[in-house]
Amino acid sequence: MRVLGRLTVVVCLAFLLLQTGAVVLADGPFELLVVSGNNKVLRFDPDGRYLGVFTSDPGLVGPLGIAVGPDGKVYVSTESSGRAAVRQYSSDGAFEREFHEFSLTRPFGVAVDTANNLYVSSYYGDEVVRWLSSGAYDGTFASSGGMDGPAGICFDAQGRLYVACDMAGQDPPVKGRVLRFTPTGAFDFQVVMDNFNVYPSDVAVGSDGDIYVLVTLGKPNNAVIRYDSAGVYKAYYAFPAINAPVGLALHPATGQVYVTGEEGVYRWDQTVGQQLVVGNGQSGLGRPFDIAFRPLQPAAGNTITYQGRLTDSQGQLASDGSYSLAVAFFEAETGGQPLWQSEVVSVQVSGGIFTARFSKVPREVFAARNVWMETRVNGETVTPRRYIGSVPLAIRAPGH
Ligand SMILES: [Ca+2]
Predict the structure, then answer these.
(1) What's the 25 CA to ligand 1 centre distance in angstroms?
(2) DSSP string over 219-283
């Protein structure tokens, strides 16, 4: 017990409910980040179940491309009113910094190498530029090989950069192609489309080294064309339902092809062919652009709703009003470092009852064998810690 002003107050846990955004997946623990034209990035599981908003950062205006770095940082390219940039987010969607250069135009493609350097295509600049992991702008990384109209970009396992080029600025016209560059930026290989008017807009490389090219031919002929690592044609995945396809990603475990167009997010299924994953307009999705897979982030959706009652030592309800409240979780009843502690939130107490919500509680808290929760009210620690057990999806605390 601690004295709070003139009152001695204890917290009684009415109940503690853990809500989780984690979904058990049959096909592996991955989630899909989808750039939404309404200035958001949304999270979905690979079957299209909505997992929440990754970011609706007000600085995200005109989002285009997306990439996830090996350190879990997420990069989203944008262009608004002629100003192009890339915005960096933590894995839980908090904005961290912006990369901007005046020369950047229509930055459709974003990729990150294994050293966390950032690469961005500049569609009208006919180049791929780079920012080093230090944040320093490194200028042009690749522009040779006749690069024209670079859009989507990606790396393969050998650290080689692939650039989907629509070559639309050429007169007389030339065929669209994917250019490949060595880790030092030297042009070393290309895959040229078989026909004119086949415009590559994005590229992905499978774990087997196969090259997948998303091409625009006009609805209903839009498709992904698969080549082996030597550029030999291998397969054709037709997406007749979509117009203006822009984003391509391969499921990291199954290799399934995912694309976006005006109508939503689609994937190619061995049995049924094109298959709708998320329709445009569903779950707040507005005109999907680029997409990227990343490991499922259960923690990002974990929210604790803490409803409790404040009383004094005689059991009298605390007076109505605003109180500050914070919680910390420990593996022991006394001592030790907290597994996690919340920020301080303000709660309204009415009739002794309050509700506090803490979001983004890391999953490690709930992986611990035994967990005690400590509550601080108006800066004072309320003792003893409450045992809340090893936490399943919903728990009821002992005591009250
Ligand atoms: Ca892409």
Answers:
(1) 24
(2) TT--EEEEE-TTS-EEEEEE-TT-SS--EEEE-TTT--EEEEETTEEEEEETTTEEEEEEETTGG
Cα(323) to centroid(ligand 1), Å:
47
Measured in Å, residue 307 CA sits from the centre of ligand 1 at 43
Compute, in angstroms, the gap from residue 202 CA to the centroid of ligand 1.
6
Confidence of residue 298 (pLDDT cuts 50, 70, 90): low
Q: Quick one: pLDDT band at residue 77, thresholds 50, 70, 90?
A: very high
Q: How close is the Cα of 284 to the center of ligand 1, in Å? A: 21
Please give the radius of gyration of the chain, using alpha carbons only, rounded to the nearest integer.
Answer: 25
Segment 41-64 shows an average pLDDT of 93
Task: Give the global pTM.
Answer: 0.71
CA of 152 to the centre of ligand 1 (A): 5
For residue 333, how far is its CA from the centre of ligand 1 (angstroms)?
49
C-alpha 162 – ligand 1 centre gap (Å): 11
**How many whole angstroms from 346 Cα to the centroid of ligand 1?**
41
Q: Is the pLDDT of residue 145 over 50?
A: yes
Helix or strand run (H / E) with residue 203: strand 199-205
pLDDT at 59: 95
Collapsing DSSP to helix, strand or coil, 298 comes out as helix
Q: What is the pLDDT of residue 366?
A: 66
| Spacing, Cα 174 to ligand 1 middle (Å) | 23
Query: Distance, CA 109 to ligand 1 centroid (Å)?
Result: 6
What value does the mean pLDDT take over residues 247-265?
94
Give me the amino acid identity at 129: V
User: Span 86-98, mean pLDDT?
Assistant: 94
Instruction: Catalogue all structural domains in the chain, each as residue range(s) with its CATH number.
Output: 7-19+300-394 (2.60.40), 30-295 (2.120.10.30)
Find the 206 Cα to ligand 1 centroid distance in Å.
Answer: 13
What's the residue count for the chain? 400
Closest CA to 364 of 334, 327, 336, 331: 331
pLDDT of residue 51: 84
Compute the distance from residue 260 Cα to the ligand 1 centre, in Å: 10
Would the pLDDT of 287 be above 80?
yes
**Nearest-5° angle of CA 280, CA 283, CA 289?**
45
Token pair recorded at residue 58? 């007000």
Q: Where are the alpha helices (DSSP H) in the chain?
A: 298-301, 363-367
Provide the percentage of residues in the chain whose pLDDT is more than 70.
Answer: 86
